[in-house]
Amino acid sequence: MKFYFKATKEKSADGIKVLLYYGVDQSVEINDQKKAFIERVGSECLGEGLPFFLEILTSDEKVEDTKSIDFAKVKPESS
Description:
Number of strands: 2
Helix content: 40-55%
Strand content: 15-25%
Strand order of the largest sheet: 1-2
């Protein structure tokens, strides 16, 4: 993914926000890629003086119904 922070700032961006879906059941490799991406975004934002807002959305691939009792029981573990 290519994203040019300097150009974004020059177009009057006030900051960068990323919504990250983080699955506790996903492979270590996938979650490591997500961590590396977030580190890069944070570093680039710091370099450009842009505020960086990260919202982590957790999920559990084993529970599909997000309104179920099972999801409510697992959610604190994935937060």
